[in-house]
Design a protein that fits this description.
The chain has about 150 residues and is of the alpha+beta class. It has one domain. Helices cover about 25% and strands about 35% of the residues. A seven-stranded mixed β-sheet has the order 1-2-3-4-5-6-7, with helices on one face. It starts with a helix and ends in a 5-residue tail after the last strand.
Length: about 150
């Protein structure tokens, strides 16, 4: 009789553990995916915050590196590579994968200032004080659609 009681208690304990595990697991939660903050591809709130960090680091004289693949409307993807040592910014635009580009090339810009400006529908990242450009000329690097940031 004692063995039956111990066996029954064991079965009950296993069943309780299974019930607790099933109740603790929420099927509506998507699986957690670690995002690499060196790559911006979604241009969502997480990427926007990362870009704000990039700007803040530059303003503090700190370097940073990110790779951005902005969403496309038509054509193919262009890859934007940002690098900085805290004193200078290098921005490389590679459109060699864009089938709609009139000229496939890689262009590198060297600049000394970066800022975020707000438009009607976008937050834009702009570079200024760039080599081979007028002092007041701004280069629009990427944009974040406001409706994707909510």
């Amino acid at each position: 009789m004692k063995k039956i009681y111990i066996g029954l208690m064991g079965v009950i304990l296993v069943c309780q553990t299974i019930v607790i595990m099933v109740l603790a697991y929420d099927r509506n939660d998507p699986p957690k995916v670690e995002r690499n903050d060196a790559f911006l591809v979604d241009f969502d709130q997480v990427d926007f915050l990362r870009m704000q960090e990039v700007i803040a680091r530059y303003e503090e004289g700190l370097g940073d590196n990110i790779l951005m693949i902005p969403p496309i409307v038509d054509g193919g993807y262009s890859i934007h590579e940002y690098g900085s040592n805290g004193r200078e910014i290098w921005w490389r635009v590679d459109n060699t994968r864009d089938g709609m580009a009139s000229e496939h090339s890689q262009t590198v810009y060297t600049c000394h200032s970066i800022s975020m400006v707000e438009g009607e529908h976008f937050h834009f990242v702009e570079l200024s004080d760039c080599d081979n450009y007028e002092d007041d000329e701004k280069l629009r690097m990427v944009g974040f659609l406001k409706e994707h940031l909510e």
